[in-house]
Design goal:
Blueprint: H1 4-24, H2 28-43, H3 49-62, H4 64-71
Helix pairs in contact: 1-2, 2-3
């Protein structure tokens, strides 16, 4: 189990990766949500993180067809 500091760092790393790949694929809404998540983790605003993670997951599901067109 990660301590809160390590957990925040891991969330930032994952959010940064999602942001970069989404924006590279021009999937702006997902990239912006990931950027928000990255910022919250960086600032230590842990109460808001679960809601934003949920938003990121919903956006990823909604844009999965777009991602699949780039992978093919």
């Amino acid at each position: 189990m990660l301590d809160p500091k390590e957990q925040g760092q891991r969330i930032r790393e994952v959010a940064h990766s999602i942001k970069g790949s989404s924006l590279n694929l021009d999937i702006i809404p997902l990239g912006e949500l990931a950027e928000t998540l990255e910022d919250l983790a960086y600032e230590g605003k842990t109460k808001s993180i679960p809601g934003v993670i949920k938003d990121v997951l919903e956006s990823a599901k909604a844009t999965s067809l777009e991602v699949r067109t780039y992978i093919k």
